[in-house]
């Protein structure tokens, strides 16, 4: 482990600065969950072939909510079967060591942090959470648990049964429920996606680790810029160059580590366990 990282972690311990992790789809790839971008970003339904950016939108939900649900139920069935990997477990162990200084900002909606035992209080799911649904018409902002009546194994991906469709109705107004996720044509907010909380955390952060994400969306970018502008350290862990490598390349507090996520986190956990 780079000595600058260890010194910075010790500094965070002494000064009560936050130790923050920003993670994305790369973390769950090892658990077999596709990124739903690039070559995995297609959805074939009947004779139609959609791009993720097209079907994962509020606009499409208004036009064809059943089509959107077919796609999400398929994705939910994939995540339901997936198990957390070493990276998820190491993040949970690091949280246990670091306590209230810890914050996990995750772009993943796949429930794997919860399955690994990360706490609800210190985990910020900025793209939503597959374990919940809410009213598609926003008659209230209440989150409902994902309906238990919906079968998630051996799904016929082209069929939603009438009973399942009934379970996908808002209990208050009977409009269609929607997945509790951030769609491509929607914006971050505090109510659903903890935007303000995450921005506050970025300003209290002494060291930010960026793992398994290439920086495609604007909130992660702002978080990173906030940390750097307050003299925090930013460590990007990625096997290849990303938006963040470029951003960090000329910053004295920026470090790019060319390594897989899980060995890095394991090493970090072992280092912290020695003295935290
Ligand atoms: Zn409603």
CATH superfamily of the largest domain: TPP-binding domain
General shape: elongated
Question: Which compounds are bound in this model?
Answer: zinc ion
Multimerization state: single chain
What class do helices, strands and sheet pairing give?
Answer: alpha/beta
Question: What fraction of the residues are assigned to beta strands by DSSP?
Answer: 15-25%
Number of domains in the coordinates? 2
Taking the alpha carbons of the first and last residues, their distance comes to 16 Å
Largest sheet: spatial strand order: 5-4-1-9-10-11
Overall pLDDT confidence: 93
C-alpha Rg (nearest Å): 20 Å
In CATH, the architecture of the largest domain is 3-Layer(aba) Sandwich
* Biggest beta sheet summary: 6 strands, parallel
List unreliable stretches of 5+ residues: none
Number of helices: 13
CATH topology of the largest domain: Rossmann fold
Q: Helicity, in percent?
A: 40-55%
Level-1 CATH class name of the largest domain: Alpha Beta
SSE order in H/E notation? HEHEEHHHHEHEEEHEHHEHEHEH
Number of strands: 11
Please tell me about this protein's structure:
The chain is of the alpha/beta class and 276 residues long. It has two domains: 1-33 and 85-127 and 189-276, TPP-binding domain (Rossmann fold, 3-Layer(aba) Sandwich), CATH 3.40.50; 35-81 and 135-181. 41% of the residues lie in helices and 19% in strands. It contains 13 helices and eleven strands. The protein has helices spanning 3-15, 26-29, 52-55, 58-63, 65-81, 86-98, 112-116, 162-167, 190-193, 195-203, 218-229, 243-248, 261-275; strands at 18-23, 42-45, 48-51, 102-106, 123-125, 128-135, 144-145, 177-181, 205-211, 233-237, 254-257. Strands 5-4-1-9-10-11 form a six-stranded parallel sheet, sandwiched between helices. Strand 9 (205-211), helix 11 and strand 10 (233-237) form a beta-alpha-beta unit. Helix 6 (86-98) packs parallel to helix 13 (261-275). The chain is elongated. The two termini are 16 Å apart. The model has no long low-confidence stretch (mean pLDDT 93). Residues 135, 137, 139, 170, 172-173, 175 line the site of zinc ion.
């Amino acid at each position: 482990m780079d000595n600058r990282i260890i010194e910075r972690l010790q500094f965070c311990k002494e000064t009560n600065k936050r130790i923050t992790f920003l993670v994305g789809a790369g973390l769950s790839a090892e658990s077999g969950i596709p990124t739903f971008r690039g070559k995995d970003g297609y959805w074939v339904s009947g004779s139609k072939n959609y791009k993720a950016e097209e079907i994962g939108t509020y606009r499409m939900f208004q036009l064809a909510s059943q089509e959107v649900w077919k796609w999400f139920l398929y994705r939910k069935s994939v995540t339901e079967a997936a198990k957390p990997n070493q990276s998820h477990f190491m993040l949970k162990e690091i949280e246990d060591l670091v306590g209230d200084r810890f914050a996990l900002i995750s772009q993943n909606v796949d429930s794997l942090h919860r399955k690994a035992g990360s706490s609800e209080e210190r985990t910020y799911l900025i793209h939503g959470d597959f374990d919940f649904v809410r009213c598609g018409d926003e008659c209230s902002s209440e989150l409902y648990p994902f309906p238990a009546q919906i079968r998630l194994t051996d799904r016929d991906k082209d069929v939603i049964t009438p009973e399942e469709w009934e379970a996908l109705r808002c209990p208050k107004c009977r409009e269609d429920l929607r997945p509790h996720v951030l769609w491509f044509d929607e914006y971050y907010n505090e109510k659903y996606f903890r935007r303000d909380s995450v921005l506050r955390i970025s300003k209290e952060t002494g060291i930010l680790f960026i793992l398994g994400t290439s920086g495609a969306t604007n909130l992660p970018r702002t978080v990173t810029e906030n940390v750097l502008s307050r003299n925090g350290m930013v460590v990007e862990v990625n096997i290849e160059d990303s938006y963040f490598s470029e951003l960090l390349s000329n910053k004295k507090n920026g470090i790019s580590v060319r390594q897989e996520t899980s060995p890095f986190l394991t090493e970090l956990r072992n280092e912290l366990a020695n003295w935290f």
